[in-house]
Amino acid sequence: MKFGKIFKKQMVPEWVEAYVDYNGLKRVLKEIRSYKHSKLTRAASRVSQQAEALHRSFSGLSFHPRHSERAGDIEDQVIKVDTVQEEGSRKLYETKFLKKSEEGGEFEESFFKKLDENLNKVNKFYRDKVKEVIEEAALLDKQMDALIALRVKMQKPDVDNLNLEKHPSDKVVVDTSDNTMRTQGTANTDMVHGIERTNIPEEEASHIMADIVPVSHTNGDEEEASIGDKQDLREILERVKMNDVLESPITTLKGVFGDSNEPISKKGLKKGEEQLRLVFSEFYQKLRRLKEYSFMNLLAFSKIMKKYEKIASRNASRNYMKIVDNSLIGSSDEVNRLLERVEVTFVKHFSSGNRREGMKCLRPKIKRERHRVTFFSGFFSGCSIALVIAVVFKIESRKIMEKNYGTEYMANIIPLYSLFGFIILHMLMYSANIYFWKRYRVNYTFIFGFKQGTELGDREVFLVSTGLAVLAFVCFLLNLQLDMDWRMKHHKTLPEVIPLCLATIVLFILFCPFNIIYRSSRFFFIRSLFHCICAPLYEVTLPDFFLGDHLTSQIQAIRSFELFICYYGLGEYLQRQNKCHSHGVYNAFYFVVAVIPYWLRFLQCIRRLCEEKESVHGYNALKYMLTIIAVIVRTAYELKKGRTWMILALVSSGVATGMNTFWDIVIDWGLLRKHSKNPYLRDKLLVPHKSVYFAAMVVNVILRVAWMQLVLEFNLKSLHKIAVTSIISCLEIIRRGIWSFFRLENEHLNNVGKYRAFKSVPHPFHYYDDDDVDKDD
């Protein structure tokens, strides 16, 4: 694999713009190569004409190349790199190309100018990130002070006047010299993290990445210097309290109706320890990514300079790489030392000194691709297609639709199985979204907050959806076979129970506590669903409101679930008739079920408005309120009919459709920016073909308007009403799948613009400084 592909693959997606523009530099080198080639072609004709004359002129002379060889041994100075000092002791590098006067020198000068821009950009980003992690490490030091003091207090509650002696391993930040960015020196300028840069093959670069994190070690001198660092336990405890985070129903209710500040108990301390483990784990991943960022950029500079030497036939690589190695990204050792201290601190305090267990928690689990997933996905796909054909042949061979009871029979059974059809289609759309998110490097695992190594890929989701499709089609085919079999006429209730058994199996798999069928993903879904149901008592995260938006596209599936309760709970299946609409309670819940998803999203928007104080959430809540009104009026028209209800349904649905369409395209997708680099789109696009975005906007408008068919009820004689409703529901699921891709693309680009590559985990303890105390006084 070429280095360019490895380099792109190893990039942190949100930091793409901060890396060396390797492809841009290669394009400049191609211009230099094409110019050199054309120059040689022109010179070749002149040389061939003079070759014979030169041969005759020098045929009698002997040629001694000693002077030429000696001149070749002396490296001509091609470049001169100057350092410009900026405010805040920041350095900028400017390279002067000394061969500019030569023919074609302007191309090489532009190459070094672009190279300097990349070096300055990389150093600036690295400096800012190192400063950021040092500040974060200082905060973690205070968190560790609080944790250790509270542990001592819990073990010895009656002891107050105790000095807290801190071992050097308890500190995340190691005292540095006057120079904040400590350097390693310039002795090993040709080494990259212990590896000679020029000897790193391109195909091995990706394998080196997994081993660049240094092994932890402690310095004896540092222990002796810090052994006397003691603090008074009472002083620390007086300055520490648990952070008040309204992330659960209990803490939310306490925060609204009363004081949630309570003395720290053992349960609270344990919760704080777990939260601090997450903070350390996320901080460690940030340090690892920063280390990889440094390594890959240094390697990119080395590779591009080797290419330059090969194309331009000039010896400039060694001089320029000395400058790169002496720059901040090549000489700073802060990240290395922070990695070591985090490892030592975490192993000691969170894994009881067991380094293997501690490193297992800190280092991300690498997900392995399994061939059996691909095999069973293909197998279940083939089985699903075969079962669909079998169902069609069964209906046609028995001529069910031509019989008197056929239409009524299908009207009873289709709504029961359509629930599983909607779920399968939604999962297939999600699988397709994951595939395209991966293809266009949308970091969906970070956006959703999946635990690294446990997230489902497109193949796993496709496997689950095809497996459910096989199970549903087998039950449906069995249902048809038992209903049509004359020997089962005396056991008519048996086929009616099959959909209930299928629903029971699906629910059992979903809530199964055993570690089978992707338990972590199932529990993640259940937790997000529970947060949606309990809105606004839980803090609203992106997975929660993303799932809430998807629930608004599954109203018909939720109504099918309501039908299950009515059909089997009220005994309708014994009569083989669906008369649920004759029950007043069912009709009342028919209204409520359609409103619930939009109401939950409305509450989530209200919660975010109260917490974030951003008006956009208020407008979003208004959008969902208009949609709720439209759904209620439309449902009333569906049950009661009448011209008045039809006009009200048309007006309310039209307003809601217009508002939702505008919000989808402008707010959620960030498109229709008139003054952007890409007219009527946005400045940054991940999909290279602009027509895809315009097509998506048109399709979104068409599918948004499609639900108006439920109000207008065009006379479609060839389709039953249930079939029309099912088709429109499927189109809404497809629209939601398209919406999901561009919604996450826009979210990802927002993260890229802010270089936000790691989730922010709140600290469990609040530590009052002297400045805070003075302010309170």
Automatic annotation (TrEMBL):
Keywords: Cell membrane, Membrane, Phosphate transport, Transmembrane, Transmembrane helix, Transport. The keyword Nucleus does not apply. It is a multi-pass membrane protein. It is found in: Cell membrane. Residues 1-322 form the SPX domain. GO terms for biological process: cellular response to phosphate starvation; phosphate ion transport. Residues 581-775 form the EXS domain. Its main location: membrane. The chain crosses the membrane at residues 373-393, 413-436, 461-482, 497-518, 584-601, 621-637, 644-672, 692-712. PROSITE patterns: EXS, SPX. GO terms for cellular component: plasma membrane; trans-Golgi network. GO terms for molecular function: inositol hexakisphosphate binding. InterPro entries: EXS_C (IPR004342), PHO1_SPX (IPR034092), SPX_dom (IPR004331). The keyword Cell membrane applies. CDD domains: SPX_PHO1_like. It comes from the Eukaryota. Belongs to the SYG1 (TC 2.A.94) family. May transport inorganic phosphate (Pi). PANTHER family: PHOSPHATE TRANSPORTER PHO1 HOMOLOG 10, XENOTROPIC AND POLYTROPIC RETROVIRUS RECEPTOR 1-RELATED. This is SPX domain. It comes from Arabidopsis suecica.
